[in-house]
Amino acid sequence: MQKQKPYLESMPDINGFFGKFGGAFIPPQLEQPFSQINEAYNKLSKSFEFLHELRKIRKHYQGRPTPVYYCKNLSDMIGGGQIYLKREDLNHTGAHKLNHCMAEALLAKYLGKKKLIAETGAGQHGVALATAAAYFGLECEIHMGEVDIKKEYPNVVRMKILGAKVVPATHGLKTLKEAVDSAFEAYLKDPVTQMFAIGSVVGPHPFPKMVRDFQSVVGIEAKEQFFEMTGKLPDMVCACIGGGSNAMGIFSAFIEDAVKLYAVEPAGKGDKLGEHSASLTYGSEGIMHGFNSIMLKDSDGNPAPVHSIGSGIDYPSVGPEHAYLNNIGRTNVGLCNDDEAVEAFYKLSQYEGIIPALESAHALAFAMKYAKENKTESILVNLSGRGDKDIDYVIENYPIPHK
Fold it and tell me: Which one of 68, 223, 250, 279 is CB 3.0 to 4.6 Å from 318, fit for a cystine?
């Protein structure tokens, strides 16, 4: 009797589909470059030299493993479930993004590419890719919405210092979706010498699978660390989602375990279209940026305007694997609005001395609400990034509260 393949080996299928979600809906001129990336990844993911180099980079350059930390003060203040953090804010460059950026840059070197091109929302992916480009001696071009350039200016400066060219996306809402549009247009002009290093578990196959696999180090570490700390697995794991790379990174280790998984969406400032970025909650099936998933649509069926205080999760769709896992009932969806995210931002800062990214604060805020209602449970939050980039914006718009 043949044993069933583990989930991560069987999903996605050979064409990049997670059930009905995923695939590669791309112009003919991109079919060969994406096929080349897929073939290279399938080969290198089994290569000792590639994996050895990646492990060396993670240990000696990125500073991995990042720790799991127990939030005693915050847990005591809430008086409910016990909250733990996977500290991806301590990964080099201050977020989880470098986990896949170093790997994508290594892949680009193998393919003989000269330049990395990408989109960024909050700037964390842009900074991480600029870092990887500097490390490997590659050119780097980052496309970023004009609104986000102003909001996340410290990260724009970091990208430029690292040697990247920052290109403003000036059309539409001038945020993450438009940055992806702009980056795709630039990539189309020269897919031969450039590689589009997609920054989340989105886009055409093989990127949703590839980025998940590169980010799975987060879940592998967290599972082992949590068990070492407590002798058990957590009752619940949660992470914020826009595209959802940090969430798939930590979820990947727990998919086949009896652990509740919550993908926390940005509820923004209301439930009307344009006031939030909650794709799984309010969206429907649709194709955007080369993949089929659940997306927010306007009355004409086009990607809808979105809003979130967290620029990195301000996106009108979600990674196809998240759509699939939610569709089959394996994951749950949590919601966190702008005000709740800011409250969590300040609470973690003042009770634990950790300033989180606004994106990560969404997951923490949901975990705090969940802890109040589930007093006997242990909760593991993927703290996907640090909040240096958000400090100016937060204090200009939200007064610092008394502890």
Answer: 279
Where helices occur in 252-307 by DSSP H, the ranges are 279-282
**Same domain, residue pair 252 and 389:** yes
How many CB atoms are closer than 10 A to CB 372? 11
- Whether residues 235 and 375 share a domain: the answer is yes
What residues are annotated to the active site?
A: 71, 96
Give a yes or no: residue 329 inside a domain. Answer: yes
Domain harbouring 108, CATH code: 3.40.50.1100
DSSP codes of every residue in 326-363: HHTTSSEEEEEEHHHHHHHHHHHHHHHS--B-HHHHHH
Instruction: Determine the structural domain holding residue 173 and report its residue range.
Output: 98-198
User: Is 53 part of a structural domain of the chain?
Assistant: no
Among the listed residues 195, 167, 264, 201, the one whose alpha carbon sits nearest the alpha carbon of residue 12: 201
Number of domains within the chain: 2
pLDDT in tens, 145-202: 999 999 888 899 999 999 999 999 998 888 888 998 999 899 989 999 999 999 899 9
Taking residues 128-151, report their average pLDDT: 95
Per-residue pLDDT at 245 exceeds 60: yes
What pLDDT score was predicted for residue 186? 93
pLDDT confidence of residue 3: 65
Domain assignment present for residue 308? The answer is yes
∠ Cα 103 294 189 (to 5°): 50
